[in-house]
Write a structure and sequence with these properties.
It is a single chain. Strands 1, 2, 3, 4, 5, 6, 7, 8, 9, 10, 11, 12 and 13 form a 13-stranded mixed β-sheet that branches. The N and C termini lie far apart (about 125 Å). It contains 6 helices and 13 strands. Helix 1 runs parallel beside helix 3, helix 2 crosses helix 3 and helix 3 crosses helix 5. It is of the alpha+beta class. The protein is rod-shaped.
Length: about 325
């Protein structure tokens, strides 16, 4: 066979030879020719080199596509996380700002030294507990009584105090029995003690436990649902939903209007500690600022009263000893 023709045939078979798909006879023919022909051997090396480069390029392309796919997935995850973070941050900041705005308004309302607070707690259709606080220039009077069907059926002890003279001292006066008890407390009372109870949330007591205060404030948006309404009372108010209880708060003043669902008592099965029924309440709040007179906080003249003294510090020392 002519040498040139044989080279052309072999070179046509080299691809199949490299891929190992030739029949045995053709493979032997190619190998025999390669032993004798340097030109075809060079052609074989060229084909093998090109195939190797092609495989390397293919692997490089695959690796590149894998990197692109991996980066795309990472970007998608990061973008999703960022979107969720933005939504969460918006949700949290919205509630946090409302809560802190309400707390700031409450503290603003009680900046003065003259205010009256009234809370009416309805336990059922006939029973109402009235809690009233008069405060002026450090002096205060707290009156509580129970009404049924519009008549007073039980009076509780009236509390008196003077924060300016002795913030640890408080009087409990029973005018019907003409008895009084002077108590020396463990800690001093502050005006803020009367204000804190008016807020659905934590107010800065200024006592120094700042870390606990900050943690509580940061956690408040997580456990309360917030909405607004105006239908029931004709002006806009927040509805703070705590799950088992709700509180309406005036948007303008930050002061509570009503609260629902607070448990005020439990009925147990006879001779057991198993709760049979819990009694919930509806509370209404009323306020007046700047109109408390001196006589409103003036303590009852205790002349002729049976007065006893109780010192909590001494009692605590007795328990320790």
């Amino acid at each position: 066979m002519d040498k040139k023709i044989e080279c052309e045939i072999v070179q046509d078979l080299l691809i199949g030879y490299v891929d190992d798909v030739l029949k045995t006879e053709s493979k032997k023919l190619v190998e025999k020719h390669l032993m004798e022909c340097e030109k075809c051997r060079e052609k074989l090396q060229e084909i093998q080199s090109n195939l190797q480069k092609g495989e390397e390029n293919q692997r490089a392309q695959i690796d590149y596509l894998k990197k692109i796919r991996r980066r795309t997935k990472i970007k998608a995850v990061l973008l999703t996380a960022f979107v969720f973070f933005v939504i969460f941050a918006g949700w949290y900041l919205y509630k946090f700002c409302i809560i802190n705005g309400v707390c700031a308004k409450i503290e603003k309302q009680f900046e003065g030294e003259n205010f009256y607070i009234e809370e009416n707690i309805s336990c059922d259709e006939n029973s109402v507990i009235f809690n009233k606080i008069w405060y002026k220039d450090g002096k205060y009077k707290v009156v509580s009584h129970l009404e049924e069907a519009g008549e007073v059926v039980q009076k509780f002890e009236t509390r008196y105090g003077n924060l300016a003279e002795n913030a640890k001292e408080e009087y409990f006066v029973n005018e019907d029995e003409r008895k009084a008890r002077k108590e020396k407390m463990l800690t001093e009372r502050k005006k803020g003690d009367f204000i804190v109870s008016q807020s659905p949330f934590v107010l800065d007591s200024g006592v120094g436990r700042k870390f606990e205060f900050v943690i509580l404030k940061l956690g408040e948006p997580f456990y309360v649902k917030i909405s607004t309404d105006y239908k029931q009372i004709g002006r806009k108010y927040y509805v703070f939903d705590f799950g088992e209880s709700k509180k309406w708060v005036d948007v303008e003043t930050g002061l509570p209007i009503m609260s629902f669902g607070d448990v005020v008592g439990t009925d147990f099965y006879p001779n057991t500690n198993i709760p049979k029924q819990e009694f919930s309440s509806v509370s209404e709040y009323h306020y007046d600022f700047g109109n408390v007179a001196d006589e409103d906080v003036q303590m009852t003249d205790l002349e002729g009263y049976e007065v006893e003294e109780f010192d909590w510090e001494k009692e605590m020392e007795k328990l320790k000893s």
